[in-house]
Amino acid sequence: MGELPLGYRFYPTEEELVSFYLRNQLEGQRQDMHRVVPVVDVYDIDPWQLPRLAGRLCHGDTEQWFFFAPRQEREARGGRPNRTTASGYWKATGSPGYVYSSDNRVIGVKKTMVFYNGKSPTGRKTKWKMNEYRAIQEEANPSNIAIPKLRHEFTLCRVYVISGSFRAFDRRPLEAMERPAGPSNSNLPDEAQAQPNDRTGPESGTQQPLWEWGQLNWP
Q1: What is the pTM of this model?
Q2: Fewest beta carbons less than 10 Å away: which of 21, 43, 44, 192?
Q3: Rounded Cα–Cα distance for residues 165 and 65 (Å)
Q4: In sequence order, what are the residues at sequence separation of 6 or more whose Cβ sits closer than 8 angstroms to the Cβ of residue 166?
């Protein structure tokens, strides 16, 4: 990874984030990646402070920032991760979904969160959002109904601000529109059980359940 010429931006696909960056981090390889995706305890820091902690090659980015987040000690002991900062807290929104490779393999799981100012549950919603990615232990075959097991040592977090402009971040090959039916989100582990306090997802405009990730150890 050399110095980027003027005008270039770090703008990876979700497949690249999971299959290359997160995989190499989990295997302890390619330390040069930290120039674009550093290791940061993102849940200890208010989101507006994160851009200045971005990788050296991404300091000029004003759109999105990427970080490897190590597993918290309390989570390693079987507890729930603490997503509370000095000014507010991160809250999950919508439902988790699979991340696919270009050849239709399930390679990870994505969860979306929104940052709220204040104390739960009365905080004020902000424009700061985060996609949290986890890799699976083995790349899954979409025809296999078995529930994938997740790697927990690190997550890869994409932090961004809702701007109202179109973003083509989740880029997939055109043939992905015609891919055969793979494992649906409803086949995500029983740990993804809908809770009684279902609410409307802000992006889809449809009724979206809040999910629990107890058995997946991804609360």
Answers
A1: 0.71
A2: 44
A3: 17
A4: none
